[in-house]
Amino acid sequence: MKTELIICMGSSCFARGNKKNHEVILEYIQTNNLSERVILKGNHCFDQCSKGPIIKINNKVYEDMNEERIIEILDKEFGIN
Ligand code: FES
What residue segments make up the domains of the chain, in order of their start? Predict the structure, then answer.
């Protein structure tokens, strides 16, 4: 099964970190050769702006995302360290 990553591209999340987080995720996918295993999508505001930046991975919501936390979560998700 592919891992579905949804990045909130609403203006609040985007301005507060998801612009950078999106780049980090793209780079991570490339570096680790994961493009076959990932579906990457952008989404409109999830109405959880105050907890943003928001990223969903397989329908689980991750709040307050930054570069370090994303990499940690992706490492776990894909069994990479
Ligand atoms: S902009 Fe991301 S939850 Fe609103």
Answer: 10-78
The residues of the chain scoring below 70 in pLDDT are: none
Identify each DSSP E strand in the chain by its residue range: 3-8, 38-43, 55-57, 60-62
Closest protein CA for atom 1 of ligand 1: 10
Q: Is the pTM of this model over 0.90?
A: yes
Task: Answer whether 48 contacts ligand 1 (Cβ < 6 A).
Answer: yes
Q: Is the CB of 17 under 6 A from ligand 1?
A: no
C-alpha angle 54/60/37, rounded to 5°?
A: 95
The three-class DSSP label of residue 56 is strand
How much distance in Å is there from the Cα of 37 to the middle of ligand 1?
26
DSSP state of 47: S
